[in-house]
Amino acid sequence: MGKRLVVIGGDAAGGSAASQAKKRQPDLDVVMFERGRATSYSACGIPYWISGAVEDEAALIARTPDQHRAAGIDVRMRTEAVGIDLDRRVVHWRDLDGGGEGDEPFDDLVYATGSVPMRPPVPGIDAEGVYGVQVLDDGVALREELARGSVRRVVVVGGGYIGLEIAEACRVRGLDVTVVDRSSTPVGTFDPDVGELIAEAVRREGVEMVLSDGVAAIDVGPDGRARAVVTGSGRELPADLVVLGLGVRPNVRLAQESGIPLGTSGGVAVDARMRTRIDGVWAAGDCVESRHRLSGQRVVVALGTHANKQGRVAGLNIGGGYATFPGVIGTAITKVCDTEAARTGLSSAEADAAGYSFVKAAVDSTTRAGYFPGAAPIRVTMIAERRSGRLLGAQIVGREDAAKRIDALAICIWNEMTVDEILSLDLSYAPPFSPVWDPVLIAARKAFEAVEDDVRQL
Amino acid sequence: MGKRLVVIGGDAAGGSAASQAKKRQPDLDVVMFERGRATSYSACGIPYWISGAVEDEAALIARTPDQHRAAGIDVRMRTEAVGIDLDRRVVHWRDLDGGGEGDEPFDDLVYATGSVPMRPPVPGIDAEGVYGVQVLDDGVALREELARGSVRRVVVVGGGYIGLEIAEACRVRGLDVTVVDRSSTPVGTFDPDVGELIAEAVRREGVEMVLSDGVAAIDVGPDGRARAVVTGSGRELPADLVVLGLGVRPNVRLAQESGIPLGTSGGVAVDARMRTRIDGVWAAGDCVESRHRLSGQRVVVALGTHANKQGRVAGLNIGGGYATFPGVIGTAITKVCDTEAARTGLSSAEADAAGYSFVKAAVDSTTRAGYFPGAAPIRVTMIAERRSGRLLGAQIVGREDAAKRIDALAICIWNEMTVDEILSLDLSYAPPFSPVWDPVLIAARKAFEAVEDDVRQL
Q1: Do B371 and A324 touch (CB under 8 A)?
Q2: Domains of chain B, each with CATH number or no CATH
Q3: Confidence band of B433 (pLDDT split at 50, 70, 90)
Q4: Of B326, B410, B434, the CB nearest to A427
Q5: What pTM was computed for the model?
Q6: B96 CA to chain A: closest CA distance, Å?
Q7: Which residue is closest to B43 within chain A, CA to CA?
Q8: Which of A66, A442, B39, B422: CA 20 to 30 A from A15?
Q9: A362, A433, A440, B196, B328 from B190: Cα distances, Å
């Protein structure tokens, strides 16, 4: 009898792990449990589906259950893994629709349960009309609610990536939208100047931003439905619908209950091959922690791109290959209204927290030669270590064609380049693509001059 | 008395060298000779000025003679350096308008004479109506000729970057345009599949491409003006105007005559600090050769971005600082009609010529998540060394937002990364910017699989 792999969770990480393992080792029995109604979908695409930019829910699905089945994977939809017995090496499952349950034995197990939205512990948070946007089924529910036509006022709690994307989506649908965030600028993973530009972009679209103010309570009507968000400062923001955009935390309940160790960050602890500390038990995706290559710390970063890579690595290793996931450097990108923003490495606050002594240089330039039609504003910010000049972090904010340029700087950081080395790089130049001094190179030059001045003063 | 720097050539390299040196050492006397009518202009912008996309000639000028003078540089316009006496350390100059001439003594000299267009040695090449497009004055002349309204048919000789950009510019002006190129696909610095996509883009705009056919002669009318281009295969292409787009060669005549040594590539030989082999004589820009970091060969690459950097390095060193130009890796980018293309490192032909054993992997993907509005085609090609998997070259071709992504791969090559390392990079992901597997990462994965298969077969 062949060996058996059980995968808990059928989205990006689980689906990739199952696919890769089966592909590498075709005689492997692969069973994949998914408690939702979809496999391998783009959670990041949900806001665009809600706005209507993406018409069809099916477009968000990279691989359907039937496609997985055609590849030889035994997919069990709407089936939740409710227990893992590491001694007997079985997963206990429950059919959420039929109500049946049972045990599934495994030789290898992949834990890919994803994440769950943060829910602030405030009164009313569990009322009807309060939505997270985490799994595709959340999106389905939210879209159905909006389609009913009784929602006019939406309050989004949390001004992170997802919060702002949902705010924009609701605005596109013509709703009144307010975003509440505890910080003085939204998207706190960026430095405040970038956050301010993002806030301006959102405001230009008519979204109200309530900043430096948290959520104290959800006011619930006699029908049991949320009717307002009450802020810490006492403001009452009427809402027909409340969306939680406070980020997510790793879904580790089942791991904890069954004895799969977590790491310092609260995610499942894995090594570079995606092995947990339990023999034959692997984990991947939003539920695991990764090594941050700059800070050395373990961090949880919920991103589809990591989930796909980690799932692939786990699957390859299970299938008898050898692969590693080398860690993350905090790269992220977002488009909010007409503004694009991206970051990589450490923000100023993160560099401070990690104890670095650094200089910061920002340059305002254009995405094309200044004289070229369509040249749009772009700001490149670099954070470089004092004395060494090593690039620690970078942020880009601008209009179209701006933010994806962050990848170049992510690779500079990955390779531990100094700003002095960066300013000499052979980057592409032609007038439709950049000024003759590329904004990235100008920023490096400015950062280098700051580092140099600093060294001179020593 | 202060030391004196003489700069020959007032465009990107010369202008940058003069500015930096003066900035670093304010008591330096700086004299800059420029034989044309403009300083520090964007030669790369000329095609867009000819098309009308850029309205104003002045927009192409980064720094006017008066701006240089305000910075303390003694600019001598329309003044050609006609001799360099390295023993007496003087430059002999001639005023092209007034006719005066004289000697200018120097302590340091920057040779920044740029390049001259290639002119095939065929009958009629020097006739009226045959234009190169190299300096701004060429652009002025060409634009005036087009403005006269008597030109209907244009033949562009050479299908390189500039040739195609000029062809498009003339087409935008409503002219009949034919491009003649000896190769079977245009822009020979790309692999043929990319060249073919570029050719299709140009043809879609109504430009006729005559490929695999060279120029044998220019047929000259009784008025002394070019009236047709005769190809090697005997075709006669009627032309009211002929534009040479065969590329450029370094302008080294004066260096040769005065004893400043050239390198193996035919450009002025310089070290990383931009010193020629003559003490106190520096060189920068299109006229010098650079070290290709992959092949180790010396190469001449005429590009404004290199010229600016090299000029800055020379000026910094002359001004008492320390800076180096670390070489090039062959990065280039172009937009032709609706198609963008970029390259870095070695093409297949170049990798062959350099003796590498390599695999090639190409991926057709989209610039945004496939479901996202505006997702445009992008093809990423990677050339990786067999066994080691080191990335040797990459090419990107696609529509809007595609080509500038080459910078990421340029930095991978710069850092000698393998495709295995590249496929794990923390690149930015969100649906408006890429599929969850970024096209760059998919290409790296495919190249890695090709390398891996190859190793297994050994």
Answers
A1: no
A2: 4-44+52-116+249-318 (3.50.50.60), 119-246 (3.50.50.60), 338-456 (3.50.50.60)
A3: very high
A4: B410
A5: 0.95
A6: 29
A7: A431
A8: B422
A9: 35, 18, 25, 10, 17
